[in-house]
Design brief:
single chain; about 350 residues; alpha+beta; T-fold; 9-stranded mixed sheet; 3-stranded antiparallel sheet; 7 helices; 16 strands; globular
């Protein structure tokens, strides 16, 4: 999925830990073969884009699309998994260092629309199917797939009897039970926005995702163009903004972090609507923080948090910054810990 994956888990022996980690990695590889648009051989990469004809799809792709549609509806289109054409255009723009022309942006955006696809859970008892109502639509699960994968890896470990684990794909992290002697997994959240220190969260049986322009962006004409795209316009986000979401559902955390970068903290003024719309995907503990510099040249970032956010923050960590008026009410450790990644070397603590 275009990033490094890391697993930390507790087991009785190193050999057991290696086997458990391998099973979790295998689960993510299987999902990548379905969801990744970085692979032309994946199920998403091989989808025909003709309109009007039902296309048989796997249950995993169906589930990812069903979740995506729910979140698109709940965020008024600030998140959209049909954004593939625009994603490809802006990826090339970042490689070339050139902002796309307006007509190219408009052409790509004409092939975006979460309400232009129809899902059928079964077709003549042959399994689920997808129908494109508009030709040329391309799927991109970049804003939800890593959250799905991190949680799937954690669930694989749970199935195998290991509940004390953490699975990380870039900014998407799924945390299981707390390590022995601790209140939870310590996760440092960095916004990438000047003047905002890192924030340490204490999480257990929760997922967290952070989205922003720190790692991937295009700087041109004095403007920073984020890798996050507004599906409603096809333009890259240019507001300096970063969002972190905590939820029991990795897909929700991943997708909503992106949606908040598009729609801004204003989305949180409708938080009850988000809870109601996403109730079917375990949104009961949805909490978030949005950091934004309102205009270029402004020195003080604005930080907007939901009412339960501070309960997740490590009380010993420093917290600074201005909270905007939009902030809402509303045993002995003898096990072996294995950290496994592509180089088999222990990576830094994920942030």
């Amino acid at each position: 999925m275009g990033c490094e994956m890391r697993i930390e888990l507790f087991a009785q022996t190193s050999q057991q830990a290696q086997g458990l980690a391998r099973a979790a990695f295998d689960r993510v590889h299987a999902l990548e073969d379905v969801l990744s648009d970085y692979r032309s051989t994946s199920q998403v990469g091989r989808l025909a884009t003709n309109s009007g004809t039902p296309i048989p799809i796997s249950r995993e792709l169906y589930d990812a699309l069903e979740r995506s549609i729910r979140i698109s509806r709940a965020t008024n289109g600030c998140f959209d998994a049909t954004i593939g054409a625009s994603s490809q255009l802006w990826r090339q723009a970042r490689r070339d260092g050139l902002v796309p022309k307006e007509d190219a942006i408009a052409r790509a955006n004409a092939m975006v629309g979460w309400d232009e696809i129809v899902l059928n859970s079964s077709t003549n008892q042959q399994g689920p199917a997808l129908t494109f109502l508009r030709p040329g639509i391309r799927l991109d699960f970049g804003a939800i797939g890593k959250g799905i994968a991190a949680q799937a890896a954690l669930e694989t470990l749970r199935t195998l009897g290991t509940t004390v684990a953490m699975c990380s794909l870039a900014g998407d992290i799924a945390c299981g039970d707390a390590p022995a002697g601790s209140d939870g997994w310590m996760i440092d959240v960095e916004s990438g926005i000047e003047g905002v220190p890192s924030c340490r969260l204490v999480l257990r049986n929760q997922c967290v995702s952070t989205s922003g322009d720190e790692s991937q962006h295009l700087d041109a004409n004095g403007i920073r163009y984020s890798h996050v795209i507004d599906p409603r316009t096809g333009h890259a986000v240019t507001r300096r903004i970063a969002a972190t979401v905590v939820s029991r559902d990795g897909a929700v955390a991943d997708a909503l972090a992106t949606a908040l970068c598009v729609g801004g903290p204003e989305l949180l003024t409708h938080i009850s609507d988000l809870h109601n719309a996403l109730g079917a995907v375990s949104i009961e503990d949805f909490q978030s923080r949005v950091v934004e510099i309102k205009s270029y040249g402004q020195n003080t970032p604005t930080i907007t948090v939901t009412s339960g956010w501070n309960a997740l923050v490590d009380s010993t960590s420093s917290r600074r910054g201005q909270v905007s008026p939009l902030a809402l009410e509303g045993a002995d450790q003898t096990a072996t810990m294995a950290a496994l990644n592509s180089s088999d070397q222990k990576a830094p603590l994920p942030k």
